[in-house]
Amino acid sequence: MALRGPALRLLRALLGHTCQQSRSQSVAVLGAPFSRGQKRRGVEHGPKVIRDAGLIDRLSGLDYSVHDFGDLNFHYPEKDEPYMDVKSPRTVGGANKKLSTAVSRAVGAGHTLVMLGGDHSLGLGSAAGHAQQCPDLCLIWVDAHPDLNTPLTSPSGNLHGQPVAFMLKELQNKVPDLPGFSWAKPFLSCRDLVYIGLRDVDPGEYQIMKDLGIQYFTMRDIDRLGIQRVMEVTLDHLMARKQRPIHLSFDIDAFDPLLAPATGTPVNGGLTYREGMYLTEEIHNTGLLSVMDLVEVNPVLGASDEAVQATASLAVDVIASSLGQTREGYVLPSESK
């Protein structure tokens, strides 16, 4: 049984962790305003609306030292023709390379990092940069979609549906070389990946998950098992062999569209608010969260200002819960007796 909660935090305090030392009170926020991994413009405004919804104040209220690194500026080549039906490969590859460098630098400086997207193609650069500092990381991908298509299986050619394929060592012979991606080398074993919240899976993705034996939980599994059991199995699967840093990549479309309407690929029947908060609380309780992504908030797609605000506020709640905000309350260190 994997250690979690107070027991794990005590163990870490006694033994330390190669990628977690001195990071508990320092959080860095990095915006990645990028939308070329998919066809719907507007998701590049995600970092701004999440910040405007009160993210920095919320994290500061959790007694963190918060460092807002602002937004990355991305280069957009004048010509970026499709390659093997993959859209904007040079632009997406270049953006992820730049993000990878920035994430590696922040993690190396000792921060817990929050990356604000942007579309989910950015998950590649974020996790790759994290892996440069923490090669033993594990990945929890919370999403309605597995984003596991290869350029050969993708029905759309959009790279926001393919980032995980570029990460997996087991797929290195299945992913063709794309212009803009020469820097990207596989760094993750399929046994170090868990999906939560799936409910829209392409045939090629399903075949890969089955062939590789990837651990995943669809919404049917969550209905059947309950979110408590899903998180127990997830953390036992990832931590049974050893404790290591967690990379949480959270697509806001994991939630039901009634809760998160301002997003590009909504799918009915998603996570409830309580399920999302429990999931992130349990990840925080491991004491091992090192980097998290919050992606696919698209204010242009909100039907009203209220819809945009609801989606952005939900994103803030997800991030705050991942970093220690609890529904049962907490006492700041300065207020302890």
UniProtKB/TrEMBL annotation:
Gene3D superfamilies noted in UniProt: Ureohydrolase domain (3.40.800.10)
Binding locations of Mn(2+): H120, D143, H145, D147, D251, D253
A Pfam family per the record: Arginase
Superkingdom as given in the UniProt entry: Eukaryota
UniProt key word Repeat: no
GO molecular function per UniProt: arginase activity; manganese ion binding
An example Gene Ontology CC term for this record: mitochondrion
Requisite cofactors: Mn(2+)
GO biological process terms held by the UniProt record: L-arginine catabolic process to proline via ornithine; urea cycle
Pathway noted in the entry: Nitrogen metabolism; urea cycle; L-ornithine and urea from L-arginine: step 1/1
Manner of cofactor binding, per the entry note: Binds 2 manganese ions per subunit.
Annotated catalysed reactions: L-arginine + H2O = urea + L-ornithine
Top-level EC class as recorded in UniProt: hydrolase
Keywords from the UniProt entry: Arginine metabolism, Hydrolase, Manganese, Metal-binding, Urea cycle
Family to which the UniProt record says this protein belongs: Belongs to the arginase family.
Quaternary context: Homotrimer.
Name this polypeptide is given: Arginase
Species, as recorded: Gouania willdenowi (Blunt-snouted clingfish)
Record gene name: arg2
